[in-house]
Amino acid sequence: MSGLKSDQFSIMKKFFVKTNRWSNPFVVQTDQSLERGDVIVIEVESGISQAIVEGRAPDSESEKSDKIEEAAKYVRKATLIDLKNIRDFRKKGKEALKICQSEVKKSGLPMKIVDANYSFDGGGITFAFTSDGRVDFRDLVKKLSKKMQRSIRLHQIGARDESRQSGGFGICGRELCCVRFKSNLPSITSEMAKVQQIAHRGSERISGVCGRLMCCLAFEEEQYRKMAEQLPKFGEKVKYKGKQAIVKEVNLMSGKIEIELEDKSLIFVDKNELE
Questions:
Q1: What is the C-alpha radius of gyration for the chain, rounded to an integer number of angstroms?
Q2: CATH number of the CATH domain containing 243
Q3: Which of 34, 108, 117, 244 is the most buried (most CB within 10 A)?
Q4: In a 3-state reduction of DSSP, which class is residue 74?
Q5: Is 162:117 a contact under the CB 8 Å cutoff?
Q6: Is residue 48 assigned to a domain?
Q7: Number of folded domains in the chain?
């Protein structure tokens, strides 16, 4: 044991990191001690990039609850020179954003440019945009490349990604779910609202600041489904005091069931009152 080097006992830790606010997170593994907010340098498929540490990632498979974008390779903590360059490129990014927005307006393209990010080496710029459909931006890329003398990339993001990038607070008073949670944004469907019996409230009351269904609809869906499994379904035939009845409504929260009796009268009963 005495012949082993001390670095062989280094404990590898996993961290969630993001290259920008609207992107999905990456996971990096390192034996370095990192804290939320640290700026680091990572290697991804597209090359070297800066990233901000979002927090610790689960170490075991059993702890994982959501799918994560992919793994990235940890390179180092950002040096003072790295930080200076990142700050300079952020300032230039704001200028590039205005230029791109102006070009889009001139071209009349049906898209909204929401962010601009310089690459780590400054050789390329990625513009994030939202749009209701596909956009042919090839001419725009040519104009921007010529004007900025950089490699230009346009990346379409969703409305919820835009909210994640902008930040803010929901009607609950808490920071937006898309900002708070590190994993990929779940797919939210109208079926989730139906299962939780709130679809009748109208889309304006169950939609977030992005105009899409609220992320929190995904939080309790599984519990509601389990509750529904314990109760009869709408239209199901049941027996109440020895007589046939039909289920007309089920309230999952109260556990009350509205049934229609043979004489067409409607009453509310508990599950344990049914035979």
A1: 26
A2: 2.30.30
A3: 117
A4: strand
A5: no
A6: yes
A7: 4
One domain, residues 145 and 207: no
Question: Is residue 167, in this structure, part of any structural domain at all?
Answer: no
Place of tokens 């995904």: 218
Q: Do 52 and 114 fall within a single domain?
A: no
Distance CA 16, CA 10 (A): 19
Rounded to 5°, the CA angle 164-168-170 comes to 100
- The answer to whether residues 104 and 124 belong to one domain is yes
- pTM here? 0.63
Q: Are 218 and 188 within 8 A, CB to CB?
A: yes
**For residue 167, what is the DSSP state?**
-
**Contact in structure between 63 and 23 (CB atoms under 8 Å):** no
Assigned domain for 169 exists: no
Percent of residues, the chain, with pLDDT higher than 90: 33
**For residues 174 and 181, what is the distance between their CA atoms, to the nearest angstrom?**
12
Is it the case that residue 196 has pLDDT exceeding 50?
yes
Q: Rounded to 10 degrees, what is the CA torsion of 101, 102, 106, 109?
A: 0
Assess if residue 210 is contained within a domain. Answer: yes
